[in-house]
Amino acid sequence: MSPSKKTSDARQAGPASERGQGGELHQRAGDGEVLTTAHGVPVQDDQNSLRAGERGPTLMSDMAFREKIFHFDHERIPERVVHARGYGAHGVFESSGDHSDITRASLFAEKGKKTDVFVRFSTVAGNMGSFDLARDVRGFATKFYTDEGNWDLVGNNIPVFFIQDAVKFPDLVHAVKEEQDRGFPQAQSAHDTFWDFAGLMPESTHMTLWQMSDRAIPRSFRMMEGFGVHTFRFLTADGTSSFVKFHWKPKLGLQSVVWNEALKINGADPDFHRRDLYDAIESGDHPQWELGVQVFDDAFADEFDFDVLDATKIIPEELVPVRVLGTMTLNRTVDNVFSETEQVAFMTQNVPPGIDFSNDPLLQGRNFSYLDTQLKRLGSTNFTQLEINAPRCPVAHFQRDGHMQTAHQRGRANYEPNSFTGEDRGPREAGAAGHVPFAEEVSGTTRRIRAESFADHYSQARQFWVSQTPVEQDHIVAAYVFELGKCEIPAIRTQVMANLRNVDEQLASRVADGLGMELPAPSEAAVQPVDLDPSPAVSILGNAKETFEGRKLGILVGRGADAAQVDRLRKAVEKAGGMTQVVAVAVGGESLSDGSTLEADHAVAGGPSVLFDAVAILAGEEGGQQLADEPAARDFLTDAFNHFKVVGLHGADALLAATGLDGKTDEAILVLGSAEDVTSFVARCAGPRHWDRDITA
Ligand code: HDD
């Protein structure tokens, strides 16, 4: 036996799927046919506890009952202090080439090289049982099981952060979570304490613009970008270093919902994002992202307008384009949410050889924090042995014992150096083959200080604002109005508005108008903001992809709807890479023109149009009036209209009249009478929402 094997943890080899197949490592319900206790003793009767006499007390000798309740009483572990609500999936990363010119990280060594991954998406502020479509940042954490150890890229869907120094993280999180004296609001930043903190911390202004944009209400995890946020380092085999910023780009492009829609989705389907990911993967529609890096050197860092160690700043892609390193595909849902998604432990400090840290003070603080939190959550230093966290390469060390030790660490020596040989010797350090940190010269006086180069808090916020399309700007204004409108203390609004005046006068006055307040004087800026060139890459709508791939059409059918047309629609959407669901007045289905009955996926009362990217309403002979008489069907159309969606209609005159929308047709409200109509409708669905629609009239 090799030394490394001898001292290895038990569960190192092969992907989880292979390891699980023998059944030795994890139990599945159904592995055995007989119900047993945790100790394997067959259970006689699981319906009745053991009692003395028919109506007498339960007996302490009923160990099966005692054990069952004991385990149940201890099922919960602490939820994550942030990012508590998350959803995970397995997948694979495939390198697009040999990237050894910039990093020796083995996963990027050759074209086609595959590395298993596990991804957990999350909201930040809400508790585990909160809803998916909160206005919030989304976590995008990826564990790469590389052949030189696990790499955790623990990022967000927004490329900047609220604070520059990790010492402020507990304050930020306390401010955004439920207020301590009342226990609400849940899963939202729209309350006094968050905006109080944000207003008093001008460095958060840039991120609040992103947070007020549609980035914070994504249509799907599959349709959002991810960012490593910080500047990291890459190191080549000869020790040459460059700075990098990580980017995930979804193959499906970026899509968001509108705010009124988000509010309604949270009621209609609080699990909207997790269901979407689950359904997509289970149906074989595996989402993909390209992983890329912006690579730059010290010379660029020195001449860039901002400090590359400041996590409240981006480096515009127009200045440093993203170099693609490979593609990630998520192709497998979890077997058990607790075992995998809940117990997965991401830590920024997990990097393999070839990847290293910069001195970003936020990153440095994170590297300290994540290990701590795993012990708190998972309860043992041996959390690395859980299948979801265990590396899939040899593991060999002299760390021993601890709660829930599952590895049988063999051999005699449990220390080094030692003079044993063979099986008793244990592993030795790797030297240059190990994780060699970047050799950086460090000097300076010990001080608690924020560098001057971190002082400009507004210029990039302004750059973000001017890089948005007018529609996106409208949404940002509306979001500030909504959020600040929820603050009860006027002085808090005033402070935020004073900061916004340093971002853009038009933005500030539009928000002030919306709030019905006077504009305060601008706050004093440590550094006067400057006008930077716009960065079109940060706009969602400006970069929209013309496709219906991965999206969903809701078909509301009325009694006697044209069966052939329903069929055509479903086929055309499928061909376009999308999916369809049928909605009817009753979930049992609806009778169609050919006498057949079409089963529905939703009754219209439970399947509102907010669940779909576009809708078609095929009313049919008797269905026109039937739908017009049904309040939920009227909402179905009205909401689709108000959310700027593409709508296809046939035989829906009575419904249009009942909703007051007759006479309000526009280019995104299409008639679905013929086969050709179906083709043009599905083509239009691939385009943008009809933002020009006048929903106020
Ligand atoms: Fe963090 C979780 C992302 C700053 C401390 N963070 C957590 C998760 C993500 C991020 C995606 C969830 C991981 C999962 O799904 O399990 N965090 C970020 C980003 C940050 C950031 C992109 C800034 C660029 N975080 C940050 C700071 C600190 C933390 C400055 C503390 C100093 N974060 C934590 C934590 C969490 C966490 C308390 C809670 C649960 C966990 O780690 O595993 O340690």
TrEMBL record:
Gene3D superfamilies: 1.20.1370.20, 3.40.50.880, Catalase core domain. Residues 36-424 form the Catalase core domain. Residues 1-31, 408-434 are annotated as: Disordered. The active site is at H83, N156. It catalyses: 2 H2O2 = O2 + 2 H2O. It is an enzyme of class 1 (oxidoreductase). The keyword Nucleotide-binding does not apply. Keywords: Heme, Hydrogen peroxide, Iron, Metal-binding, Oxidoreductase, Peroxidase. Its cofactor is heme. GO terms for molecular function: catalase activity; heme binding; metal ion binding. SMART domains: Catalase. One of its GO terms (cellular component) is cytosol. Heme binds at R80, R120, F169, R366, Y370, R377. Its EC number is 1.11.1.6. One of its GO terms (biological process) is hydrogen peroxide catabolic process. Decomposes hydrogen peroxide into water and oxygen; serves to protect cells from the toxic effects of hydrogen peroxide. Belongs to the catalase family. HPII subfamily. This is Catalase.
